Amino acid sequence: MSKGRAVYRSDSPVAELDLHARTVDEAIPLVEEFLHDAYARGWQRVRIVHGKGSGTLRLEVDRYLSRSSLVARHGPADRFHGGSGATEVELSRR
Question: What is the pLDDT of residue 1?
Fold first, then answer.
């Protein structure tokens, strides 16, 4: 899995964007591109993996998602899918 690229894992029903080792300035454009691509493909749910770290990247991803018209709701992943190190996103319906 390459860093910062949208990856659809065959062992998971949810497409994931891995942002490990990315700065906020690198990550937010990737999140935007990922969400637009997911919406265009008709996906209903995606996961953004940002890691736990200092929490700055998680906070900025959360701020972006809160303002995006493509996002119906979002929140931390369950403990089996990253917990606070990942964010589950439900996309708006067409």
Answer: 42
